[in-house]
Amino acid sequence: MRRQLTKRACDECISRKVKCSGSWPCDTCQKAPKEVDCTYLKPPGRRGPKVRRRTNKGRSASDGSIGHVHTEEAAIRAHPVENRPVNHAAVHADAEGDESLSAWGWRKETCIPITILVYIVRLYQTFSHSVWPVVNADALLQQLEDGTHDAQTLCLALALCAATMAQLQLAPLAGGDNQTVDSGLLKLECMRLRERSDYRENLDAKGVLVSFFLHVYHAKINQRKSAMLFIQEAIASGRLLGLDTKDRNVAFTDGVVANEEILFLLLWVSERGYAMHLGVRPSYNDPVELPDAAHLAMNTHARGLLELFKLFVTFDKIQTRRCTRSNSAQALSVASLAETEAALSALAFNSDQASTRLADCYITREWMKTIVWQEALSQRLLSSTSTTEVMTFRFPAVVGRDLLMSLQGLTETDLLPLGRDQLLKCFEVANSLADIVIYTPPRSFSNALQAGPQDLLHALYQKILPFLEQDPVLKSILRAKTAEALVMAPARLGVGLVTRPDVEEENISDYSLTAAS
């Protein structure tokens, strides 16, 4: 009786070139002397003998060829680059055959099941569309389910799914033949198919979005250089297509790209925010053409991005100073820092936009105010007797209070789609607040705060605790600092928080702080 072959071997057995049972975990990995990871993440290879290609090696002088063998090097010398014929069919040919990648070929090309892509796109539609409102999920789902998608659409779906899985911290999904699909595999498939589609010459808006979502993916897994390169690639591609102007050189035909008027604005805001994290200069410094007022009035997503745009424009003076690393750079004055903080505090946000986008604006503003205070601290401009609040040591407590008031009423579901970027911003606010609780005497704080800084720190820590699970390092740092601060100044029971003018009183009345456990 013929032995039944295993459909798919695990990655460990493939690398060790041993027999695999095809189960998960397989028998070989279970019997290994040391613990190994039994995974099925690598794309399956092609089975069977390699296809032989006809070459010129067997030709002789009798069949009309010259007596010596024509090598590839000799052919290159015989045909200059500018006169060399280009076989476009061979450029898009399959790696193991000569069949060109037609629409059907692209649908059969990826090893990712379409059902998994459809599932993740629906998650994007539910949770992350308000964060990246540039993909029409309904149109994309229809093309994936009907099998009418082309190469660019498939690459966009793979990049979008990789970014969504990384953003929402989704566990790997089970595919066919004991295969598991995670964000890393989706990214690899996207980049492999993208290179084969010659995307640089066939550039369109979908290609711009692929670069953007690859930036999001690498940012979420903390690969900073790759993330910065991909967002700069998206910016450069958008400029080539004229997305930064009202006279765009690209047509949006199949409806997969949505809100094209704010596409470049999303790229601009994303690059600005990530450049601030890295402390580098952004690549795009020209004035940005904003969408028409009529479009802003009808589109809540456009209004939300415009408010983020105003935040970054207000902060540009501070950002330029932080990115200037030379010793001759002129330091910012007290008046300039105070003016920037006042401008940030004066910005009001429309409450009719999506709660996730509203939380993004609030967190970004308080984070920028914290950076202003840190800049003043680094220049030794703080004073306990200063009449300017941002120049005092108690200012992080004010920022922590404002952040708590802003996030009041927002649930974990509202904050989860924001991902790791907003976690880092909340961490900086809480970390600065913990520092002043530890190193500043309690009498330095005004009674007008009602709640002491230790109460605010405890409440803020409890608010962001579910998201700290995404980063164990940040969690351990903030947990240790919070514990040290609360030992020195324990949080009190039943302390009400000060209301802000733009927050309704009844929303705050039921909010109370609990003692640290």
User: Strand sequence of the main sheet, in spatial order?
Assistant: 1-2
Total domains = 3
Main beta sheet: 2 strands, antiparallel
What structural class is derived from the secondary structure elements?
A: mainly alpha
Mean pLDDT: 75
Oligomer: single chain
| Radius of gyration over C-alpha positions, nearest whole angstrom | 28 Å
* Number of E-state strands: 2
Q: Hey, roughly how much beta strand do the residues contain?
A: under 5%
CA distance, first residue to last residue: 67 Å
List unreliable stretches of 5+ residues.
53-107, 325-329, 493-517
Q: Helical amount among residues, as a percent range?
A: 40-55%
Query: What series of H and E elements makes up the topology?
Result: HHHHHHHHEEHHHHHHHHHHHHHH
Keywords: DNA-binding, Metal-binding, Nucleus, Transcription, Transcription regulation, Zinc
Main location: nucleus
GO molecular function: DNA binding; DNA-binding transcription factor activity, RNA polymerase II-specific; zinc ion binding
Protein name: Zn(2)-C6 fungal-type domain-containing protein
Q: Topology, pairings included?
A:
Blueprint: H1 11-16, H2 27-30, H3 72-78, H4 88-91, H5 103-109, H6 114-128, H7 137-146, H8 151-168, E1 173-174, E2 180-181, H9 183-196, H10 205-220, H11 224-240, H12 263-278, H13 293-298, H14 300-323, H15 334-346, H16 355-378, H17 395-407, H18 412-415, H19 419-439, H20 453-468, H21 472-488, H22 505-509
Detailed description of the structure:
The protein is an all-alpha fold and 517 residues long. The protein has 3 domains: 1-41, no CATH class; 110-289, no CATH class; 331-490, no CATH class. Helix content is 54%, strand content 1%. The chain has helices spanning 11-16, 27-30, 72-78, 88-91, 103-109, 114-128, 137-146, 151-168, 183-196, 205-220, 224-240, 263-278, 293-298, 300-323, 334-346, 355-378, 395-407, 412-415, 419-439, 453-468, 472-488, 505-509, and strands spanning 173-174, 180-181. The chain has a two-stranded antiparallel sheet with strand order 1-2. β1 (173-174) and β2 form a beta hairpin. α16 packs antiparallel against α17. The protein starts with 10 loop residues before the first helix and ends in an 8-residue tail after the last helix.
